[in-house]
Design goal:
- The protein is an alpha+beta fold.
- Helices cover 35% and strands 14% of the residues.
- The protein has 27 helices and 23 strands.
- The strands form 7 sheets. It has a 5-stranded antiparallel sheet. It has a 5-stranded antiparallel sheet with strand order 15-16-17-18-19. It has a 4-stranded antiparallel sheet with strand order 3-2-6-9.
- Helix 20 (692-715) packs antiparallel against helix 22 (755-777).
- It is globular, with a radius of gyration of 30 Å.
């Protein structure tokens, strides 16, 4: 008998009420009592000895399975029964081939179809939910898949096979099927439907790659679509439930293989490449000094230069993610994924080859306009391949000649209605509430503004923004009155960035400050900036190295103010990308996904709830580690922090990331943008009513929370059922102790004892994956595609009166401004990335929608009706948001040239639309 061992990451027992046995032991015991009879089947030459034993899918490094001698069989493969009556049932097996196949694939598929047709390709074993008292395990019958169903699919890449069973009438309801793939390669199983039982059709949704027996001799377990808490698991499925979870966890050893579905944790130690160049070495993000969430373990060997860093796999070779987490073929072949890979592998190198020899700043604003009007002429030997491999909706392209491609950028939304909007102070302020990064603005609650940094290192804590300077802009109001009336707000990057400014400014072509911007919200409902403080680290000669700027009225002050705003936007762009986008959505979500697969069975109701919100995230994160956030990657090349980018992300995780504050209402209260009000929806009232991100976000948050609460209450109706759910408790413990290991001892982690606790945790996770990511991600090109509006880096400090560049600035201020922006190569790179990251795939699954592939996700009519109500609620929200965008009283989302706020509209078509909430972080 097999006794499960605790997982290596923390001390807890495997989540079953009794120690499970290995599948081999289960089946061997069943055969010993003569309860299985099978039809003899031909053996393939590649088939391992002893395959007749049923085994759990465990990594080749985790095998603890034996084989059993098959008993004598009769002619129909039926299970013996005391009852004389039997029933005939049929399993319909739906398999998806590649949509586009080469000649070799077609030949192989024909051979596999032939082998399936004669019963030598796929073996199906059907397991009852009822236990055989003689064997103490579920009743089992077996049949090969053979032949084609009478009604083949009208889609050529869909194949349907049948497996016929004769079972005794007391067999019970089948709760699991085990699949053995005898072919030489994997296949994609869509679902199995069993017909013939009194319950009607029984669905076993899979949507999973079934590995070849030659890669792993163990069978795959697929459960039916009935949700069970661990304590409710039918007796015949208990061992299988545990074995399936064990197979996913692995043993933490060895390098992962592409066909595996092992989920495990590793630190961010794969961003650098010291073996290639010592300048590409990057610190490991883990531990007290540089804490960070964990990623999915790949098990690659360490680098030769640093035993603590993992060796890299460079593009175009893929980084391991569990097999079912990879992009499906339609996504790979169409927009997002294929475009992203083509972007990294083809377009960026071609841009570099074209522009690197003349990587100059923009000389005039018309140079920027040419990107949209004339395009970029790519001259590269792989130029034709660029066009063929890129499916860029917003990047119009044309082949001019062999090896030459014309790339034209679509005009971004921020300048498509009003090309001068970005210059205005009210637009600069509006974007803190309705732009791509509307999550950093805070209400100013006290004055003077103080730093929390060590004054011995960073100088006096007081800001250089004085009371007198602010009161000049308050229309006769005192600063105390303005604070009391919730009229002052701040965008404060001082403490986050100042510790890194000296290192950032030592990089070639990078010059940055740590910024603070104070805003005044007037009685007309208009937010405008009134003062900007730009700080450098103190020196012996300048212990208070701070500069304060105001908008002014003369030409010189106006141009200096533009430069100051550009530096603020550069700070904002970096924090947006590294903290709010990557850290708070992508990186923080990954441990939730890993723990969900490791500890919640696919039959667990919470797994079923979370499943659509995990789609593609591990794959997109792996791709980002390979080409976006890696040493020498696009983020380092195009954003101000350069090689220190991920260290800033780690510092932000250390200083400000809290799970309990990732809930939207809690975040708004923390920033002072809302106050508690039990009479209002979500229990809070916005300080600025016309705050589009927050106003629309609270609608989405409320709908998610309502759906989650009724879902949770349906499955956890008994007192104590949450605290007694062993899978759920192991899941939450691992998220805290392993997934966010460096924060494991923080007191703010929510408890998980009640339905309210669970609903709050799940709502936060689903909001992070859906609404929060949509608000932060899909506006990147609409707002950032015009470089002057959101420069990702600034190349020069603001000229001071006693400096040589000041005279040049006075003579040609436009040239000074443009030469401070990213170069043409940097700009075109980041525009291409932003365009791609802002794109919806045609197979996108949006919040409140269920893809046809997952239409049988749960066998519970009450839950399906509740989901319909959730979907209907989201439709109502879309109408509400559209109405808000037409309300002329809401100045931050309507008016002359003002783009409507659509980032939290639930639905969208494909492409760069600036709207739509996908279920998951899928790009």
């Amino acid at each position: 008998m097999f006794t499960a061992q605790p997982p290596r990451h923390f001390n807890s027992t495997i989540t079953t009420s009794s120690a499970p046995r290995s599948l081999a032991a289960v089946i061997a015991g069943t055969r010993k009592h003569g309860s299985i009879r099978r039809t003899p089947r031909p053996e393939l030459g590649t088939r391992a000895t002893g395959i007749r034993s049923i085994r759990a899918v465990i990594s080749s490094e985790d095998k603890a399975v034996g084989t059993a001698t098959p008993p004598s069989t009769d002619s129909n493969g039926s299970l013996r029964s005391s009852s004389s009556s039997v029933i005939d049932v049929r399993a319909a097996i739906t398999i998806r081939k590649k949509m586009k196949e080469g000649l070799v694939d077609k030949i192989a598929d024909r051979w596999e179809s032939f082998m399936n047709g004669i019963g030598q390709g796929i073996i199906i074993q059907m397991v009852s939910e009822e236990i055989d008292p003689e064997t103490n395990s579920g009743k089992i019958v077996e049949s090969p898949a053979r032949g084609w169903l009478p009604k083949p699919s009208n889609r050529s890449y869909i194949l349907e096979y049948a497996a016929n069973f004769t079972v005794p009438s007391d067999f019970g309801c089948p709760g699991a099927v085990l699949i053995t793939n005898l072919h030489a390669k994997e296949f994609y199983l869509m679902e199995i439907v069993i017909h013939g039982f009194s319950e009607g059709p029984i669905f076993f949704p899979a949507n999973s790659w079934i590995h070849s027996q030659k890669d792993n001799p163990e069978s795959r377990i697929i459960f039916r679509n009935q949700a069970y808490l661990p304590s409710q698991t039918p007796a015949g499925l208990k061992d299988l439930r545990c074995q399936d979870l064990l197979s996913i966890r692995g043993n933490g050893k060895g390098e992962r293989k592409p066909f595996e579905r092992i989920f495990d944790y590793a630190p961010y130690n794969d961003l650098g490449n010291p073996d290639k160049d010592e300048d590409l070495a990057r610190p490991v993000l883990a531990g007290e000094e540089r804490p960070y969430p964990r990623r999915c373990r790949t098990g690659r060997p360490p680098t030769k230069s640093d035993p603590y860093s993992e060796s890299r796999i460079e593009k175009p070779y893929p980084v391991y993610v569990p097999r079912d987490e990879t992009f499906e073929e339609i996504k790979e072949a169409t927009f997002s994924a294929g475009r992203l890979k083509a972007l990294f592998h083809n377009l960026i190198p071609s841009l570099a080859a074209t522009l690197s020899s003349s990587d100059n700043p923009f000389k005039c604003f018309s140079d920027i306009d040419k990107l949209y009007n004339d395009g970029v002429l790519l001259k590269h030997e792989d130029g034709k391949g660029v066009l063929e491999n890129l499916l860029l909706a917003m990047l119009m392209k044309k082949v001019l000649s062999a090896g030459t491609v014309l790339l034209k950028y679509e005009i971004p939304a921020i300048v498509s209605r009003d090309r001068f909007a970005w210059l205005r102070d009210n637009e600069f302020a509006r974007q803190t509430l309705a732009g791509v990064n509307p999550v950093n603005i805070e209400r100013l609650k006290e004055f003077p503004i103080l730093s929390k940094l060590d004054p011995a290192v960073y100088g006096p804590p007081e800001s250089a923004i004085t009371k007198e300077l602010i009161e000049q802009e308050l229309n006769g109001m005192s600063i105390e009155e303005a604070i009391e009336n919730n009229g002052l707000f701040i965008l404060d990057y001082h403490d986050m960035l100042l510790p890194f400014i000296k290192k950032m400014n030592s990089l070639p072509g990078r010059k940055a400050y740590a910024s603070r911007t104070v805003f005044f919200y007037n009685k007309a409902g208009i937010l405008r900036p009134i003062a900007i403080e730009l700080s450098l680290p103190p020196t012996q000669s300048k212990p208070q190295n701070k500069h304060v700027y105001t908008h002014g009225h003369d030409a010189t002050t106006t141009w200096v103010w533009k430069l100051a705003k550009a530096h603020v936007c550069s700070n904002d762009a970096g924090v947006h990308q590294l903290v709010n986008h990557w850290l708070r959505t992508h990186a923080s979500m990954e441990p939730y996904i890993i723990a969900t697969h490791r500890h919640l069975s696919t039959m667990h109701p919470i797994y079923k709830l979370l499943h659509p919100h995990m789609r593609y995230t591990l794959e997109i994160n792996a791709l980002a580690r390979q080409s976006l956030i890696n040493g020498g990657g696009i983020i380092e090349a195009c954003f101000s922090p350069g090689k220190y980018a991920m260290e800033i992300s780690s510092a932000a995780y250390k200083s400000m990331w809290r799970f309990d504050m990732e809930a939207l209402p809690a975040d708004l209260i923390r920033r002072g943008m809302a106050v508690e009000d039990p009479s209002m929806p979500c229990g809070i009232r916005l300080v600025i009513e016309d705050y589009p991100y927050a106003a629309d976000g609270l609608l989405i948050w409320s709908a998610i929370n309502e759906w989650v609460e009724v879902y949770v209450s349906h499955f956890y109706s008994e007192p104590g059922s949450v605290s007694s759910d062993v899978e759920l408790q192991a899941w939450w413990n691992e998220i805290k102790n392993e997934g966010h290991h460096d924060k494991r001892n923080e007191p703010w982690w929510p408890k998980l004892n009640t339905n309210v606790d669970l609903s709050g945790i799940l709502t936060t996770m689903i909001w992070t994956a859906s609404g929060q990511h949509a608000a932060i991600n899909f506006g990147q090109y609409p707002f950032g595609g015009y470089v002057p509006n959101r420069p990702t880096l600034v190349r020069k400090l603001i000229p001071q009166e006693n400096e040589p560049d000041y005279e040049k600035f006075l003579q040609k201020p436009e040239q000074t401004f443009l030469s401070s922006l990213p170069t043409q190569l940097q700009a075109t790179k980041v525009m291409a990335v932003q365009d791609t990251l802002s794109t919806h795939s045609p197979d996108e699954e949006y919040l409140g929608q269920v893809h046809q592939l997952h239409s049988h996700w749960i066998n519970d009519l009450h839950i399906l009706n509740l989901f319909k109500k959730f979907a209907s609620k989201l439709e109502d929200i879309e109408e509400t948001i559209n109405a808000r965008n037409k309300d002329t009283r809401l100045k931050n989302r309507s008016g002359a040239g003002v783009p409507p706020y659509e980032l939290l509209l639930p639905t969208s078509g494909p492409g760069v639309t600036g709207r739509g909430i996908p279920n998951s972080i899928s790009i």
